[in-house]
Write a structure and sequence with these properties.
Elements (H helix, E strand, L loop, with lengths): L11 E2 L21 E2 L75 E10 L9 E5 L25 E5 L5 E7 L11 E7 L2 E10 L11 E8 L5 E11 L2
Parallel strand pairs: 3-10, 8-9
Antiparallel strand pairs: 1-2, 3-6, 4-5, 4-7, 7-8, 9-10
Length: 244
């Protein structure tokens, strides 16, 4: 099973309340907080553990293990409703590379997106060993779910759901695609945070390039980037903060 290892780029994310429609239905309001992680390089690599850092090349050596970090106080990421399309049956392949399904050589359609970030407390301390779950549409705006009337037409080369375990510095990462749009929602990725087997947060992530009007503190800034082979991809960083 392929996994993706990402060293975090500079992250500037503000998290607080959000507005929603019939699928995402809670609203809170709070002041603006900003948390910034130290910039590093970004690499996409195959490895045996989600998020584990590696280097490549004939003289490759394991990268140093990350250590706990503190990014300073941030406001708690608000909860949003799960929505109707949380997977009924998860694929056997549920790693953090959603662009390729195990056993297939085909690659998902759409703009490849490297989505990475930190899981921290509101005091800014990293949270290790938690599981981040994401689920989303394919490039056509279709979910893998019997409740989606178009699910039979989905991109079968796309994984739709993935999991990543946070490292000592709280980092997590996914290689996915920019979700397709469907009315009336702006593009978004659903996320859950699981700590010690318990779901402690369900929320959503939106994207800067859409101009969606969603609360800016839940929007990940999308920027152009490249993978380790120099191919163009999109990148986005996001901090998820939990009340202690």
């Amino acid at each position: 099973m392929r996994h993706i290892a990402i060293a975090l780029v500079a992250l500037v994310v503000v998290v607080a309340g959000c507005s929603s429609d019939d699928e995402a239905a809670t609203t809170t309001s709070a002041g603006t907080n900003t948390a910034t992680a130290e910039p590093t390089t970004t690499e996409v690599q195959s490895t045996d553990a989600p998020g584990a850092a590696t280097t490549s090349g004939p003289d490759a050596q394991p990268a140093p293990e990350p250590t706990a970090v503190n990014v300073g106080p941030v406001e708690a990421t608000p909860a949003q409703q799960e929505g109707p399309y949380y997977p009924v049956e998860k694929l056997d392949d549920r790693d953090n590379d959603l662009t390729v399904v195990a056993g297939s050589s085909d690659v998902a359609d759409g703009q490849v997106l490297l989505l990475d970030g930190l899981l921290v407390t509101t005091a800014g301390d990293s949270i290790a060993g938690a599981t981040i779950e994401i689920w989303q549409t394919d490039d056509q705006g279709i979910y893998l779910h019997p409740g989606d009337s178009n699910t039979d037409d989905r991109d079968r080369s796309f994984q739709f759901y993935g999991e990543a375990v946070t490292l000592a510095d709280g980092s997590w990462s996914f290689l996915t695609i920019l979700p397709g749009e469907y009315e009336p929602r702006p593009r978004h990725i659903h996320a859950k945070v699981v700590v010690d087997g318990d779901v402690v947060l369900t929320t959503q992530i939106y994207f800067s390039e859409d101009g969606s009007g969603e609360d800016p503190r839940l929007i990940a800034t999308v920027e152009p980037g490249t993978d380790e082979n120099g191919r163009p991809i999109l990148t986005a960083g996001h901090i998820i903060a939990l009340d202690p």
